[in-house]
User: Fold Nucleobase:cation symporter-2 family protein from Bacteroides vicugnae.
Amino acid sequence: MKTDLIYGVEDRPPFKDALFAALQHLLAIFVAIITPPLIIASALKLDVEKTSFLVSMSLFASGVSTFIQCRRLGAIGAKLLCIQGTSFSFIGPIIATGLVGGLPLIFGSCMAAAPIEMIVSRTFKYLRNIITPLVSGIVVLLIGLSLIKVGIVSCGGGYAAMDNGTFATWENLSIAALVLLSVLFFNRCRNKYLRMSSIVLGLCLGYALAFVLGKVDMSSLNMEMLMSFNIPQPFKYGVDFNVSSFIAIGLVYLITAIEATGDVTANSMISGLPIEGDSYLKRVSGGVMADGFNSFLAGVFNSFPNSIFAQNNGIIQLTGVASRYVGYYIAAMLVLLGLFPIVGAVFSLMPDPVLGGATLLMFGTVAAAGIRIVSSQEIGRKETLVLAVSLSLGLGVELMPDVLQQAPEAIRSIFSSGITTGGLTAIIANIVIRVKE
Assistant:
């Protein structure tokens, strides 16, 4: 396929060009990688040391995952410039799981369900009639809408602020508003570097204002910890398992497999590679397989499920560099950042309103992506019924969780998440309504 690329997938750019391209990719993904562990840690009220370690391990796991995607180990990996990072899609189910069984249950459930995506990579053509674009669009929409609540809570000061009576003070809302407006402002700039770093710049401004207002608590920092190295410790927090959490997280793995397929396809197009035939199927199968395998690996190293980042496809277009060897540089940078505790500590001290201002926009973007997927399909009477029943039940459970308070514990834990409820409803409704016709 004809492209305007400077370096193709198998080209090896000079060190200077490769490093410059890698830094731009890193700038685009850094905040997205560290945000899920920060949100999850805040919801579970973890201390600074645990939060810092989770952030560091997210960077480390993303580095290892990116290397596997770019390098391809056997049947695992797309062998493209595919960047992996901590997935937003799992935040809701992970928080629900963590509130039941803490970090051991989170990591155990994520590892146990990861093979689902690996199996899908080999049987995707059989599942395409069940998990249609309409179903995946509904789930992505529900993910975004349910996460907006998490973003709003952070804007008000987080769950800790709810407990101590300082929720939604003018200081918290002002910090969140500054971050949100700054991100919007820089994102509208004509300068491509300001646009690419809009979230980082917004966070920096919000962090500075929070520091001036005395919202940054430096007393919890341990200097001995900061001066040391993070040595990845498999199963540091242990593992646990229950069926309810497995089902809730497994459903998101199914949807992630579909998203990964779309991301690999888009990456192939931008990189000038065919999007049909055996070589294409091999790339897609390897990319989705790596998505599942890397998520399992992330659980081993005390991190959360990984997925391919779609925003990096835009960076490939912007730079004209599609070389998978650039991925090696990105992977090395992420691993190094994960080994230094000070990186995780700086971000673990970030006040909730700072993170909330940025994530509110990110989560809204996720919901908008779901709307785009749904609207790309022809919406007739059957599709409207599937959409209506899925959103009604999914959002209903999300807005009024007490509706399940009389249900057995197993049912309550499975359907307490709007994503799981709406997603399962979408799959069943899609099958039933089509069969009826």
In short: The chain has a mean pLDDT of 86. Strands lie at 84-86, 306-308.
